Amino acid sequence: MKHFHAISRVPGDPILGLIEAFRADSNPAKLDLGVGVYKDPQGHTPILRAVKLAEQRLVDSETTKSYIGGHGDALFAARLAELVLGADSPLLREQRTGATQTPGGTGALRLTADFIAHCLPGRGIWLSDPTWPIHETIFAEAGLKVGHYPYVGSDNRLNVEAMLAALGQLPLGDVVLLHACCHNPTGFDLSQDDWRRVLEVVRARELLPLIDFAYQGFGDGLEEDAWAVRLFAQELPELLITSSCSKNFGLYRERTGALIVCCENAEKLLDVRSQLASIARNLWSTPPAHGAAVVAQILDDHALKTLWADEVEAMRRRITELRMGLVEALQPYGLAERFAHIGIQRGMFSYTGLTPLQVQRLRDEYSVYMVGSGRANVAGIDASRLDDLARAIAQVCA
Ligand code: LMR
Questions:
Q1: pLDDT above 70 as % of the chain
Q2: 388 is catalytic
Q3: Per the count of CB atoms within 10 A, which of 235, 318, 352, 387 is most buried?
């Protein structure tokens, strides 16, 4: 008997698949604007200096590789919750919030999906249209009913009115996923006024917000990017936050993240956390230790934290400069206005507005790789190649 006989092939991941395609391209002039990783001016994804120093300390001081508990590294959890919610958050004082360490932000989303499926049966989840493609599959895989609210339309503009109108029609009590900052894939973020209006609708419809916070520090700054998360945590009794250390600590492959839960009181938090530990046990048992230990070392040490915050700020500024640089480089082709949105979007990604066909041509004719939706990882642009990139874009837009 051939057990695997009926198994068919599925298409590769639309984002991770680009890593292999890019590697296989022998064109020396190739440009990788696919997967969301930051690259320095040398085209390298660096290990942050703060991370190297923390790793050295760990090598010198670590005494065991025994398991960490179901919620992960306690120091990491405490410091990360402070970074996200603010060290002076009343939720921390009142012990109404706790972080469960997960394998990356993706792990936090998967844990959330299973938590909703197990503990809040029947609740649908609503995603922005468009959103990160893995949001779609992660919640569907957990058996949740997935719906969409409008966010960026075919005119490649943020449509807050349509978003609010749709949220106002959601079934009472459903879960709504919001991107804290640096919306993936579009780069279009809500203003503080927009967030206040979203909060009102969330209250009116008694929705449970799940805020995905994967890019803290890459939008307007470490504190500024946390503004909406902190507003919701302050104003609502219950909130789920998925936090990732992949980008802002450059710990991509170490799979470091957390699900932060905010509850109405300390007792309820214990109930919820017991469920999370039980679900996590069946998913990955206990989380990987190294990345979280590194983050804990950094956030728990004033000098290391300052160094790290400076490094995040340098990455953020470079991304902003690349955005402006690309718009400028498009100027000679009469395309600066058409692509002006690249300058106002935030974070690593830009929804360029290029069509799938144009994206395909960029790849086939110029070895420029971006996601088929037209999402470009601005943080992957080589500044010395801005003119080449602008010329290629102009050619496919002609
Ligand atoms: C991305 O969207 O490119 C990143 O979040 C990496 C990933 O896992 O897809």
A1: 100
A2: no
A3: 352
Among 32, 39, 189, 247, which one carries the catalytic annotation? 247
Rounded to whole angstroms, the Cα distance separating 2 from 13 reads 27
Closest residue CA from atom 9 of ligand 1: 15
Asked whether the beta carbons of 21 and 333 are under 8 A apart, the reply is no
- The residue type found at 124 is G
Q: How far is the CA of 133 from the centre of ligand 1 (A)?
A: 9
Confirm or reject: Cβ of 35 under 6 Å from ligand 1: yes
Cα gap 131→380, rounded to integer Å? 20
Q: Which residues pair with 239 in a beta bridge?
A: 262
The CB density around residue 2, as the number of other CB atoms within 10 Å, is 6
Q: Which pair of tokens denotes residue 12?
A: 């590769």
Task: Give me the residue spans of the domains in the chain.
Answer: 14-47+309-397, 67-300
**Cis upstream peptide for 185 (omega within 30°):** yes
- The reported pLDDT for the residue numbered 387 is 96
Identify which of 13, 19, 35, 106 to mutate to test ligand 1's pocket (most ligand atoms within 8 A of the CB): 35
Query: Given 3.30.1490.20, 3.90.1150.10, 3.30.390.30, 3.40.50.300, which CATH number is that of 14-47+309-397?
Result: 3.90.1150.10
pTM: 0.97
> Which DSSP helix (H) or strand (E) runs through 129?
strand 125-129
Residue with tokens 């503009």: 157
| CATH number listed for the domain at residues 67-300 | 3.40.640.10
Report residue 110's pLDDT band, with 50, 70 and 90 as the boundaries.
very high
Q: Which residues of 61-100 are buried (b: 16+ CB within 10 A; e: fewer)?
A: eeeeeeebebbbbeebbbbbbbbbbbeebebbeeebbbbb
Question: Quick check: 107 and 251 in contact, CB under 8 A?
Answer: no
pLDDT digits (tens, 9 = 90+) for 137-196: 999 999 999 999 999 999 999 999 999 999 999 999 999 999 999 999 999 999 999 999
Length of the chain: 398
**Cis preceding-peptide flag for 287 (omega within 30 of 0):** no
What confidence tens digit (pLDDT) does each residue in 168-182 have?
999 999 999 999 999
